[in-house]
Structure formats: structure tokens, C-alpha cells
Amino acid sequence: MKRLTTAPNLALATLWADLLSHAGVPTTVQRQYASSIAGEVPPDQTLPELWVQDGDQLERARALLKELINPPHRHWACPGCHEVIDGPFEQCWNCGSAMPA
């Protein structure tokens, strides 16, 4: 196992670990409940950590996490209603059509 990163809170740590695991990089969250001892130890020592189970996948996990934190900015026209969609969205807000491939 290799340590990937710390997360600012348990909700993000769990979300990131779940998304990485679904992408084929088994990831676990450690120090899930350490926030209860904040104050007795430095607060940065109580943040949840993400650990990649297979150390060989650490670089892939870093790249995937970077994409999750900084989604790509897109600008596309909906094939269904021709609405211009701006941002990381993959579905039209107006008619629900999927972004063209």
C-alpha cells in the first residue's frame, strides 16, 4: 500500500476513494475517525488519508485524482436542442442529451 494524499474532510476522502476504486485503482480511506482527537494532536495529523492498495498504480491514481479535482472545461453544442453547454458537463441541461463523442 502507498499513501496517495490527505483529504480536507471525510466526505471528500470517501468520494475520491470510491471514484478511484471504480476506475480500477483500489483505494482505501485511513484515519477516518481521527478527527475526534484533534486538539490533542496537531489538526493536520487527523485528516483522512487515501491509500492505494497496489503501489504500482500510484502514478495512475495521482493522474485520476488530478482530473477529479480539476475537471476539464468544455464548450460544446447540444446535438438535440443546439443549446451551448459550457463547463465540465457531459449532459445538456435543457433536453438531457448526452455530449457528442
Task: Provide keyphrases for this structure.
101 residues, 5 strands, 3-stranded antiparallel beta sheet, elongated, Alpha-Beta Plaits, single chain, alpha+beta
Describe this structure in words.
There is one protein chain. By secondary structure, the chain is an alpha+beta fold. It folds into 2 domains: 2-69, Alpha-Beta Plaits (2-Layer Sandwich); 72-101, no CATH class. Helices cover 25% and strands 21% of the residues. It has 2 helices and 5 strands. The protein has helices at residues 10-22, 58-69; strands spanning 2-6, 27-30, 49-52, 74-77, 84-87. The strands form 2 sheets. It has a 3-stranded antiparallel beta sheet, covered by helices on one side. Strands 4-5 form a two-stranded antiparallel sheet. Strand 4 and strand 5 form a beta hairpin. The longest helix has 13 residues, at 10-22. The protein is elongated, with a radius of gyration of 18 Å. It starts with a strand and ends in a 14-residue tail after the last strand. The mean pLDDT is 91.
Outline of the structure:
The protein has 101 residues and is of the alpha+beta class.
Please, what is the average pLDDT? 91
Helices and strands, in N-to-C order? EHEEHEE
Our Rg estimate from Cα atoms comes to 18 Å
User: Uncertain spans, ≥5 residues at pLDDT below 50?
Assistant: none
Sequence of strands across the biggest β-sheet: 1-3-2
Name given to the CATH architecture of the largest domain: 2-Layer Sandwich
What is the CATH C-level name of the largest domain? Answer: Alpha Beta
The tally of helices reads: 2
How many individual β-strands?
A: 5
* Number of domains as seen in the coordinates: 2
Distance between the termini: 36 Å
Shape, principal axes of CA atoms: elongated
Structural class: alpha+beta
